[in-house]
Amino acid sequence: MLYQLASYFSPVGKSLIIASSVLMVACAQQPSIQSGSDAEKLGDNLYKIDNANVKKAYVDPNADFSAYTKILLAPLDLENVAITQPSKGSFNNKEWTLDERDKDTLRERYQAVMVKYLQEDKPDNPGYQIVTEAGEGVLLVSASIIALAPSAPKDDGRSRSIGRSHVFTQSAGTMTIGLLVSDAQTGKSLITAADQRSGWGAYSRNNRATNLADVNLVFGNWANKLRHSLDHISDIM
């Protein structure tokens, strides 16, 4: 289902997007769930959310989200990432790929950021308990990185020529993600969404430290949107 939803995107030619919005709150219009015979659906139970501040979002309007107090986080899926190669310019013509070290780093940072946002207690909403097994009252959160469009050759010695290590770009690049929230016990899909984000829009040095900072920023944005959505989903149902 994540890949069905992610087919809406093309990573090529997308403008930079600053990660500052929340999933269910639009600036000008309140979100609403489509209904009726002409409603846009995914599967049998997921209806499109209009005015969601992501590219696509669907929810089960009959789900009782108040019954869920725990979250099981699936490892970030990185097995089918479409990579748009950056401009070669005057750098070495090395293909930009995700190696196992990259994947481990992305999974670790995703897990840490999601746990931080989801379990945080707020004045009006207690945090979710992060668990390691499915059970009653547990939501399973699954995410996949669908596409990456790096803004520069990879930040390693093999991809950047000697004397060309100081690279300046407008963020690390663009990332497209698919998200699925389901009942961990039954497997029933409750929310699915897809969005595309990048890091800071100002030109700055592109190196491993700044790229990882952008990754944290993007993951933090999605984690915040998910938490806000779970806390306030009943407002539109």
Radius of gyration over C-alpha positions, nearest whole angstrom: 19 Å
SSE string, helix = H, strand = E? Answer: HEEEEEEHEEEEEEH
Unreliable parts: 2-27
Structural class: alpha+beta
Residue-averaged pLDDT, rounded?
A: 80
- Calculate the terminal CA-CA distance, rounded to whole Å: 22 Å
Count of helical stretches: 3
Major sheet: 10 strands, mixed
Report the sheet-strand fraction. 25-35%
Shape: globular
Summarize the amount of helix as a percent range. Answer: 10-25%
Number of beta strands: 12
Model description:
The protein has 237 residues and is an alpha+beta fold. The chain has helices at residues 2-6, 100-118, 208-232; strands at residues 32-33, 41-42, 46-50, 56-59, 70-73, 82-83, 129-131, 138-150, 167-170, 173-183, 189-198, 203-206. Strands 1, 2, 3, 4, 5, 6, 7, 8, 10 and 11 form a ten-stranded mixed beta sheet that branches. Strand 2 and strand 3 form a beta hairpin. Helix 2 (100-118) packs parallel to helix 3 (208-232). The longest helix has 25 residues, at 208-232.
